[in-house]
Write a structure and sequence with these properties.
4 helices, Signal recognition particle alu RNA binding heterodimer, srp9/1, 124 residues, elongated, 19% strand, single chain, 4-stranded mixed β-sheet
């Protein structure tokens, strides 16, 4: 049951496709991007065609290409600007939480078998 719950949790978060920086810059210059969020060395582009359509690319730290391209696009197209957000890099707690969630089914199954062996010993 624990494995089923973990699978259901993992399958509900869609994977964001990875693109190279040149493709991201082409999308920005073509006006296909609604918003750009830069966190550390990752830039996430939200495209205009649908609210959930995103792309991710790796940028240098500090970012000099993607942020500059968004600012240049906004200066040239004042009627249809791209929202630019900078966020702090992901905290290490999220990595630890992901590891714990990955190990949770193993711990639950191990605990269940431990409980069964204790119960079998008491019963005989």
């Amino acid at each position: 049951m624990g494995l089923g719950l973990l699978y259901a949790y993992r399958s509900q978060t869609p994977a964001v496709p990875e693109v190279d920086v040149t493709q991201a810059l082409r999308d920005i210059n073509a006006g296909q991007v609604r918003a750009v969020t830069i966190a550390g060395s990752t830039a996430t582009l939200e495209l205009r065609d649908s609210p959930g359509h995103k792309e991710r690319t790796t940028v240098s730290e500090p970012d000099t290409l993607v942020g500059r391209a968004v600012l240049d696009y906004n200066a040239a197209h004042a009627s249809q600007t791209i929202e630019l957000r900078y966020e702090p890099d992901t905290p290490p707690l999220s990595v630890v939480g992901s590891i714990i969630l990955s190990l949770l089914p193993v711990l639950l199954i191990g605990g269940f078998f431990y409980y069964l062996t204790l119960r079998a010993r008491r019963g005989s």
